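Fold these two proteins, one after the other.
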Amino acid sequence: MSAELDRLREQIDQLNVRILESLNERAKLARAIGTLKVGQAYRPEREAQVLRRIKEQNQGPLSDETVALLFREIMSACLAIERPITVAYLGPKGTFSETAAMKHFGHAGVGTPTPSIDEVYRKVQSGEADFGVVPVENSTEGAVGRSLDLMPNTPLKVCGEVLIPIHHHLMSKGKRELASIPRVFSHSQSLAQCHEWLNANLPGAERIAVASNAEAARRAAEEPDTAAVAGEAAALHYGLDVLSSNIEDEPNNTTRFLVLGDYEPMPSGKDKTSLVLSANNRAGAVYEMLTPFATRGVSMTKFESRPSRVALWDYLFFVDIEGHRDDANVAAALAEVGKIAGYIKVLGSYPAAVL
């Protein structure tokens, strides 16, 4: 047995050398490509195509998601040889927004935590960050209003999306009985996502909404007799003990994030397009405005209304459709909608989430 173990370990050592050589060879090729590129070095459509191909070619035993994550990190590291990408997200460290940023850009990306969603937009628009990551909707609590409200007025384009499964944990500084906790900090959406669990297990605790889950964890670490509802990353970052895990009411709870930047991806083969519309104030206007998508065979995956903040009872409609704006049927539908709608702005076409 010892001889067989030594033989297998020797094979692994040899394979590790070959993997290392291949990684450095890939990095050299990426650097050579970088010298030929003009403009944005990061190409989300190209990365999406690579990751889809890797998943299709994977024969195991590693899962498709595992190999995709590994190759995401490889691409991130190779891109950072030229210049690391800076990414603004809603901070502080330990938020689900940080998790989304690292999932999409890899750990070679340089994360820049900001105190608000508005500041994410500002940093990217001013050039302080290359890209921004903002939450736009949750599968149980719906839209993140502030992210949507800023989109019609920004020159930034949507150039990617990230889906993050959300698992909430109750945490505090040191182990304690649940009955001894008088106050719980968390973001308002997280408190809503754990509403029934909190009712059943902490019925008498005061629930205090703060700017982010990571901020909740920070306060729980500093203030005695308190707890926070946040993600695992926040517990690790602030040195908190997890008292109860996965306390979200819906086990499939997922948040969708959008990537914002000064870049328009080319078609990747499996894309989405986001846009904002307003309808003329007359009977049947919304139906008429959306009809071209149906007649052109374009599937609509999101339809969300928000007050326009221009006039009383005036609304903007945030729409996601399948396909890229350069696809023939999508382009034709958008042109037709543009003639009917009171207002139209294409926020961006981008690869559908791969991971």
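Now the second one:
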Amino acid sequence: MRIATFNINGIKARLPRLLEWLDETRPDIACLQEIKTSDDTFPVRDIEDVGYGAIWHGQKGFNGVAILARGETPVEVRRGLEGEPEDEHSRYLEADVKGLRVASIYLPNGNPQPGPKFDYKLRWMKRLRDRAAQIWAEEVPAILAGDYNVIPRDRDVYSVKAMAEDALMQPESRAAYRRLLGDGWTDAIASRHPAGRVWTYWDYQMNAWPRDAGFRIDHLLLSPAAADRLIDAQVDKDFRGREKASDHAPTWVELS
């Protein structure tokens, strides 16, 4: 079973690339981020036409997450995180699908830092950890998949110096991510590629893609019951090089 995460960077603008990827790779479950569309304009018919059911949590113009499943529709468990009732950003969606608990996550970027946006990022990570603990207590095979906007280790970035002041690499961001791992979640890509140098994102600017100047911010965290079934974890890097591609590449795990 293949479970993927893909920051699509605008589902309407990238719809041909999304449908192409679904058709060519046929993931069983796909978590999308930055769909950047309202609930009313989500292209559900196009997705159903290639054999996928979908649930989504949209927001016009930015943010937005979705969960797709081949041959069935995920059963929604939760949308949004508790802790800040005034937070209306569409960044979290959780569902039961194909015997797994799956969350699609679009964590705040946090730039510029320091400042309110960085403070919001850290609060959001604490809220995510609280929800992850609740999922853990259910003892279900679970995957927390998405764009975490955190570069966990120096080996996960093309240049430490270039990103040193970015919110994605601040000690507080990394510490919050490590706390999730310390709670017992497994970073699937890191477990399969301990030496690092595996990128999931390449900026549109500064010739980043041709230079392979990328970094890893798209993660799939596995509960113990899911980690025990882990066969492989990889990045569909070639899709980043296609015409009008997202700046992220699909990232996936395969479970027995």
